[in-house]
Predict the structure.
Amino acid sequence: MHLAILVTNTDESGFADRHPKDGEKFSNLIHAVRPDWEISVFQVKDDHQWIDRLKLLVIEAHQAGQPIFGACFGHQMIAQALGAEIGDNPTGWVLGTVQTSSVSKPEWEADLPDKINFYAAHHEQVLNLPDGAELIHQAPTCNIAGFRIGNQIYTTQYHPEMEHQFITALTEELSGELPGDVIAASTQSLASRSHYMEFAESIARFFELKRSV
């Protein structure tokens, strides 16, 4: 299997330099369960027109029957490209460990628990489902925490690629920027770990599905 990872985060801060970049994080996530898969990483954020080009790529890939997985901004981008709306989270910043509930389970999530822990770092969310989408995950702070479109598109609002050490460091890094109650809630929530390996397996099984185009 050969996967392409499209990276939109271009954070070049000192904090980013001290930690793995997103392409490496997602590669590590997949290789944790499928060490022999080939992965190519592409940086797509290079000028002011990159969002429009990425939306078009999502539409074309979906129409061609290519499987697409999206996390956080990817989840939002896929939804928006296919006609949904994106807006601010009514509860503000969501940071730390979040527990989602399974609303429906696609076959590739058969072995996931009904309550899935993810690491979160976002203040926007998908406000409504795109046409043909089915809600699969919900959380108290996010009504559309994940969706599917048939067996071609799979998304989550959260960060399955983040490991515990990174989200802990990120919470500390943001302590001078975000409200104190957000940081306190994140710190407390991190007593619970994400289902890193379990969700990695679900992503791999999604890409392994037999599809007809």
About this structure: The two ends are 18 Å apart (CA to CA). The chain has a mean pLDDT of 93. The chain has one domain: 2-208.
